[in-house]
Amino acid sequence: MAKIGINLSTGSLQKDEMIVGIDLGTTNSLVAIIHPDTHQPVAIREHDSSSLVPSVIYFDEANHLVVGEEAKKHLESHPERTIFSSKRLMGKSYSDIHDPSLFSYKIIDTNADSLVKVQMGNQFFSPIELSSFILKELKNRAEHILKTPVQKAVITVPAYFNDTQRQATRDAGKLAGLDVLRIINEPTAASLAYGFGLNSEKKSKPQVIAVYDLGGGTFDISILKIEDGIFDVLSTNGNTYLGGDDIDNAIVEYWLSELSISKEMLAINKPLSQSFRLKAEAAKKHLSAHDVYTDTLDAYQLTLDGIAFEKLITPLVQQTIDCCKYALKDASLSITDIDTIVMVGGSTRVPLVKKMVSDFFEKPVNDSVNPDEVVAIGAAIQADILAGNNKSMLLLDITPLSLGIETAGGLMDVLIPRNSKIPSKASRQYTTQVDGQSGMRISVYQGERDLVKDNRKLAEFNLTNIPGMPAGLPKVEVGFLINADGILTVSATELRSGVAQKIEVKPQYGLTDSQVETMLLDSMKHAQEDIIIRALTEARTEGEQLLQSTENFLQKNASLLIQEEIMNTASAMQALQLAITMEDKNLIQKKIEELNEVSRPYAERIMDEAIAKAMKGKQI
Ligand code: AMP
């Protein structure tokens, strides 16, 4: 029977509902909980083994899979059957992937607009399925260690993950048999692990936190503001291909040059190349606590001292500092605005990393929580909040692009503007344009341009069975709700009849950071022409509605009009019709006014007569 590292009383666990926190990482993943006896957060592990589970999946010839340390052993021997870094594929299409050749396994371009798949023999796996295999392994391990079923989880994602990637992570959890109560940002989790934002009941002064996360293969810097228990991501920056692996590679190159071994020679000797890499990682870890590393590899003598090591990696660390500068700039902050720096990721154990970060921010860094476990620990704290043990907490993010619906003339009507805090809610009322209209199409878009054709369509649905009413009478309330995971639900309700329809928006595939950027730049570039087009479209819609209502009025009341009024109205309508076909908004507006001028006297007269008639009827 497996021993467990923490002394858990099974009884109390079965009584209470177990909600775990999961850090689903690119390189390693792990689970943390709030210990039922000590009420302290802990990462769970088998006795004296690591809490980290490598995010690696190995498929054998029969496509049976193993996950974790066992799978990692096959990285060199069976690279084409061993999946690593599948998190990099979440919510991505083939064109989103920088360099598919960096993956040793086969990534399939399904078709232009859909998500990639990984081919394993004659089977195809989506990144969601791959992540679900890792999550399933974590769930099984947790159940084995805790001796209780684990069904509910909080899972962390990078702050820059878009809604598709968050939804994909949630779906992976579902596939693994987990009820994902919340998706939270990794830097938010790390801040929670250090206790920031937890004393929200006492009104505390806002805190600005820089979360510096240097892992095995990625670097992220996030600037958060925490005020009254609300976490706001002010900016994020980073490099998705910079981390501890690059430090290892730099050490290997240093040794190759010292030992006069050519890179070509190493490239053809895969086992030797792997051994060098492992020795380099060992040297790096050793130098985090010692001055010199020495070892042998076959006939080679390997040496590296602290000074040479630091010289070697200074340019790499400097790249992360440059990202910090950009993140500060994007948040419109200066170094003195940062109250605290939180260190995340195994590579922040390198003393030079801590020194350069602390020198840059002119403050000591927070590194007391294990940097490998800090994110999972924060997720466990969030899970505890959701279990009802720590009320009045709200974790907020912002929407990267505006969300809205299409209105008459193909215009974008924004309900939730870009940079709104989430969770977020907005609603607006619309009406019909045609008498007896029984349906209304709700098309949901994301983007900053005035015409929906220039934005990105997220979803579409029909509100049907609206009871027959004259145009303009139905009141259709469209509601947008973005939940705390950033997932959008759109509802439409005809308020007079109560007819309602609702849709959860799960876009086919998400936007990369650069696509979001391009959309924003486009909206700025086209701002002037968009304003002109919007004004013209609005004038045309107004003109068409006036033509329609005048037409209806004439049909019902022709007998009450004199010939001259009918003639004048017909010619004003014709002039407006013509103006609508032209590109001049002012001309349309002028013709609208002229038609109103012609129709106002008889419209008022007929209305007065109707009122008088009604009054007379009453008197009788
Ligand atoms: P993570 O992605 O956060 O799990 O970080 C993994 C990276 O941290 C790998 O590149 C490890 O080699 C590195 N790492 C782990 N422990 C140490 C250490 N003591 N000193 C330097 N780097 C380390």
Describe what this molecule looks like in 3D.
- By secondary structure, the chain is α+β, with helices and mostly antiparallel strands.
- It has 4 domains: 1-194 and 371-393, ATPase, nucleotide binding domain (Nucleotidyltransferase, domain 5, 2-Layer Sandwich), CATH 3.30.420.40; 198-367, Nucleotidyltransferase, domain 5 (2-Layer Sandwich), CATH 3.30.420.40; 403-523, Substrate Binding Domain Of DNAk, Chain A, domain 1 (Sandwich); 529-615, Substrate Binding Domain Of Dnak, Chain:A, Domain 2, CATH 1.20.1270.
- The protein contains 16 helices and 29 strands.
- The strands form 8 sheets. Strands 1, 2, 3, 4, 11 and 12 form a 6-stranded mixed sheet that branches. A 5-stranded mixed sheet has the order 18-13-14-15-19, sandwiched between helices. Strands 22-21-25-26 form a 4-stranded antiparallel sheet.
- It is elongated.
- The structure holds adenosine monophosphate (AMP).
- Adenosine monophosphate (AMP) binds at residues 25, 27-28, 215-216, 243-245, 281, 284-285, 288, 345-347, 349-350, 372.
- Residues 25, 27-28, 215-216, 243-245, 281, 284-285, 288, 345-347, 349-350, 372 line the site of adenosine monophosphate.
